[in-house]
Amino acid sequence: MKVGLFVPCYVDMFHPETGIATLELLERFGLSVEYPVDQTCCGQPMTNTGCEREAAKTEELFVRNFEKYDYIVTPSGSCTNQVRNNMTAIEQSDAVKHVRSRTYELVEFLHDVLKVDAFPWAEFPHRVALHNNCNTLRNLRIASMTERREEPFSKPKALLKMVKGIEFADLTRPDECCGFGGTFSVFEEGVSAKMGQDKVTDQLKSGAEYVTSSDSSCMMHQEGCARRMGANLKYIHIAQILNGARA
């Protein structure tokens, strides 16, 4: 199995440790992982702001970088959703269709494709609250949604339960948006900040020491809110926990 690692722009700039943990974690399972050095953005910011046609060149570059791989894996649900469901500014060639269908968010790749049943190296003796990004939850179906009548499930929690020493803190409103929303946090700063503060308040009430997610973008927003609120919370990507980080 040949895997291409896609590291989103904001991870590369602000949370490179997440990209490193993702690479190391995939290699622990004996996968051949490559990082195409010419990769850039997947086009999500343009699409989210209504500039879909302007994303065409970015999408073309993405396909050129990743069309040779069996799977494309990324530590971001929102970017996965962009590639899989919104990469429509370019002609839908066989290469484009291949890339779109073979792009996976890290958690779903571990859970659905590799079907991982153990992380023997992982230990995280902390109380942890889980945040699911809206795109990851509602478009990738990484977990059940509280607004739907369906059997509860959670792929990230299923993986985290294999980590020694971890304890879960349950949120009162686990599916509620944190307010990041990409460019929404720029154009609707006040609303975005208040939503983030509400999310942090819920996390504090849960008694969590750490908050984890498969999306660094949401955690970056929440961590910023938490710091301004003086909240004693720490934020860590799920890739780091599964890769063996202790704190």
Description:
With 247 residues, the chain is an alpha/beta fold. It has 2 domains: 2-113, no CATH class; 127-242, Rossmann fold, CATH 3.40.50. Helix content is 45%, strand content 12%. It has helices at residues 9-14, 16-28, 44-48, 56-66, 77-86, 94-101, 106-113, 134-138, 155-160, 184-187, 189-205, 216-229, 238-242, and strands at residues 2-5, 32-34, 71-74, 103-105, 127-131, 167-168, 210-213, 234-237. The strands form 2 sheets. It has a 4-stranded parallel β-sheet, sandwiched between helices. It has a 4-stranded parallel β-sheet with strand order 6-5-7-8. Helix 12 (216-229) links the parallel strand 7 (210-213) and strand 8. The mean pLDDT is 95.
State the gist of this model.
InterPro entries: Cys_rich_dom. The chain has helices at 9-14, 16-28, 44-48, 56-66, 77-86, 94-101, 106-113, 134-138, 155-160, 184-187, 189-205, 216-229, 238-242, and strands at 2-5, 32-34, 71-74, 103-105, 127-131, 167-168, 210-213, 234-237. It is of the alpha/beta class and 247 residues long.
